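Here is the promised in-class demo. Please do not try to memorize the tokens; focus on the logic of going from shape to residues.
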């Protein structure tokens, strides 16, 4: 289970938003995220808000679809009462946990609740995450028939000893099967990888990338392993059972991933994400990076509307109790001030291919551009045309780029 929630103001029981949050809401994209917090086993590196069956303590997986649908209806009422305009969801994303531990019928039911409450835009992107060993051909067909358009498989690696270090339970030979079943169902496919696992060599990583490219998914995510305090993996490294993550090797792995993916016809559009073309980028995740609006449904889920951010009770039992009492499942809320919103805007926009308009930066950030070009961190041609886009080296040092763009903003 994840660490404590942020310190902020208590969320109001009625969930109503200040008028400032819904100003100009019609001009912003709206998405819905549904957090399904259940896992069969806990992966050693994971600090997400997830629960195995032995940790539910009074909550039941079979009740979750009903509870999530109740929060969706609550969300509709709150947004309506707060003055937000009616408008369909442009994206819906089921994450976790392992959403596909629930029956496909439950996921379709939850999607139906979103459709009934908000409507779903024509051509909307509807994604579920899935472990390769949590679905079969019938499941994927039922999801596609129920309105899902995309599946994101947590592949992580194609190398057995790397999967073992991560406590992943699937057989890498299952990847071609699930990708084929998803294709037969008419679903777009993303394969998600992790690199930098203790004991993983550059040759191992090349093997995993080759396995991904053999499947020709529409989308690939590759995230550097972050060892979070309190996880089983952190304890194993601290005890000396596993080597610490090698940052230099991880950088080499990132560069190899970009080289191989670009050569195979993929384009990077966010530091850790590549797609075959613009149409197959994750529109839901782009909404996060662009600062759009979304309502997060489920235990521990975070939401954001018009500069107001809030988060739900973490444990499924506490979440269910609040919904049953007719009050908001949210337990904390904050209204982002100008400094925070500006920091987040630059931080997130810098990570995506479209980058940041130079003219939108504070004077100190504009003055930093020449040095970033000289250091090879941003593309000179696009910068001189008025927009900052990271080079491959800049993507490896994205946090440092952001610090230089913001270091004088609030002086």
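The designed amino acids, position by position:
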């Amino acid at each position: 289970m994840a660490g404590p929630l942020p310190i902020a103001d208590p969320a109001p029981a009625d969930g109503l938003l200040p008028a400032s949050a819904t100003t100009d809401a019609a001009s912003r994209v709206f998405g819905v995220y549904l957090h399904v917090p259940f896992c069969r086993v806990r992966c050693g590196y994971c600090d997400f808000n997830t629960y195995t069956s032995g940790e539910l303590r009074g909550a039941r997986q079979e009740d979750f679809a009903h509870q999530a649908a109740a929060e969706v209806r609550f969300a509709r009422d709150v947004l309506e009462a707060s003055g937000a305009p009616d408008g369909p969801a442009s994206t819906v994303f089921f994450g976790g946990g392992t959403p596909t531990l629930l029956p496909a019928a439950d996921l379709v039911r939850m999607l139906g609740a979103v459709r009934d409450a908000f409507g779903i835009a024509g051509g909307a992107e509807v994604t579920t995450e899935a472990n390769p060993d949590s679905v079969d051909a019938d499941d994927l067909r039922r999801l596609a028939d129920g309105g899902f358009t995309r599946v994101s498989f947590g592949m992580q690696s194609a190398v057995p000893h790397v999967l073992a270090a991560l406590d992943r339970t699937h057989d890498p030979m299952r990847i071609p099967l699930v990708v084929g079943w998803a294709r037969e169902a008419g679903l777009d496919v993303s394969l998600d990888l992790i690199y930098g696992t203790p004991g993983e060599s550059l040759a191992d990583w090349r093997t995993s990338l080759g396995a991904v490219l053999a499947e020709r998914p529409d989308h690939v995510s590759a995230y550097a392993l972050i060892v979070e305090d309190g996880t089983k993996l952190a304890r194993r490294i601290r005890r000396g059972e596993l080597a610490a993550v090698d940052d230099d090797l991880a950088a080499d792995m990132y560069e190899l991933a970009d080289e191989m993916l670009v050569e195979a016809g993929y384009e990077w559009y966010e530091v850790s994400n590549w797609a075959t073309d613009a149409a197959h980028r994750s529109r839901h995740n782009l909404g996060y990076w662009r600062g759009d609006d979304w309502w997060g449904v489920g235990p521990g889920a975070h939401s954001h509307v018009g500069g107001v951010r809030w988060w739900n009770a973490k444990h499924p039992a506490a979440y269910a109790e609040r919904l049953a009492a007719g009050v908001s499942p949210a337990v904390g809320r904050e209204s982002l001030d100008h400094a925070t919103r500006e920091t987040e805007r630059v931080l997130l926009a810098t990570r995506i291919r479209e980058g940041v308009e130079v003219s939108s930066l504070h004077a100190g950030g504009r003055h930093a551009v020449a040095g970033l070009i000289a250091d090879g961190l941003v593309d000179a041609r696009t910068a001189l045309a008025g927009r900052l886009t990271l080079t491959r080296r800049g993507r490896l040092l994205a946090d440092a780029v952001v610090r230089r763009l913001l270091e004088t903003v609030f002086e």
